[in-house]
Amino acid sequence: MEKQPSKSIWQRLCRWLKPDWLFGLLLAASIAMLVLGGLQAEASQFVPPPLFPKLALLIGAMALLSALATLGARLDRKHLDDYMFQMVANGAIIGIITSLFVHMLWEIGSGLLPPITGDDLIAVMIGGWSLGYFFYRWRGLNI
Predict the structure, then answer these.
(1) Listed range (8-17, 33-42, 81-90, 109-118) with the worst mean pLDDT
(2) Domain parsing of the chain, residue ranges
(3) Alpha-carbon torsion 56, 59, 65, 67, what sign?
(4) For the chain, what percent of residues have pLDDT higher than 90?
(5) Mind giving me the DSSP string for the chain?
(6) String of b and e for 75-95 (b: at least 16 CB within 10 Å)?
(7) Sign of the torsion angle spanned by Cα atoms 77, 82, 85, 90
(8) pLDDT: is 71 or 46 the higher one?
(9) What is the maximal distance between C-alpha atoms in the chain?
(10) C-beta separation of 133 from 18 below 8 A
(11) What is the spatial distance between Cα 87 and Cα 102, in angstroms, rounded to a whole number?
(12) Across residues 101-126, what is the average pLDDT?
């Protein structure tokens, strides 16, 4: 009987660091963001910047950050198996669609609902991503 080599500390740690734990933590963080953001809501007087610099900054940030996200997704695809990558990617799509629908609902009911902030929408997106991941984890990709 051969003695198997002992696993390194890094291999043992990676065994415990699974996407399930990460998305569970993200779901808890998104709920905490919503609760804490509601407790610390402050009215502020915001003066919008001129249109051209704002558009230039938004378009530049969008182009740069989407390129970085594409590189990050390539690294994820390299280090995750295809099934896990599909669950993470489909969960992200669910998170984006959820945040779009929540924003649309808040715009329709803007006279009845309290104001929603950007932090609220980020929390909804992260929570939607986590719930989408867990939905695909539970039901599988071929629904």
Answers:
(1) 8-17
(2) 19-39+81-139
(3) negative
(4) 25
(5) -PPPPPPPHHHHHHHH--HHHHHHHHHHHHHHHHHHHHHT-------PPPHHHHHHHHHHHHHHHHHHHHHHHHHHHHHS-HHHHHHHHHHHHHHHHHHHHHHHHHHHTTTTSPP--HHHHHHHHHHHHHHHHHHHHHH-S--
(6) eeeeeeeeebbebbbbbbebb
(7) positive
(8) 71
(9) 75
(10) no
(11) 22
(12) 91
Which amino acid is residue 95, in one-letter code?
Answer: G
Work out the average pLDDT over 42-49: 64
pLDDT tens-digit series, residues 48-87: 667 777 778 878 888 898 888 888 877 767 767 788 888 8
- Structure-token pair, residue 108: 């329709």
Task: Please provide the average confidence, as pLDDT, over all residues in the chain.
Answer: 80
Tokens (6 digits) for 51 = 């249109």
Structure tokens at 86: 């599909």
Higher pLDDT, 113 or 39: 113
Are 34 and 122 spatial neighbours (Cβ–Cβ below 8 Å)? no
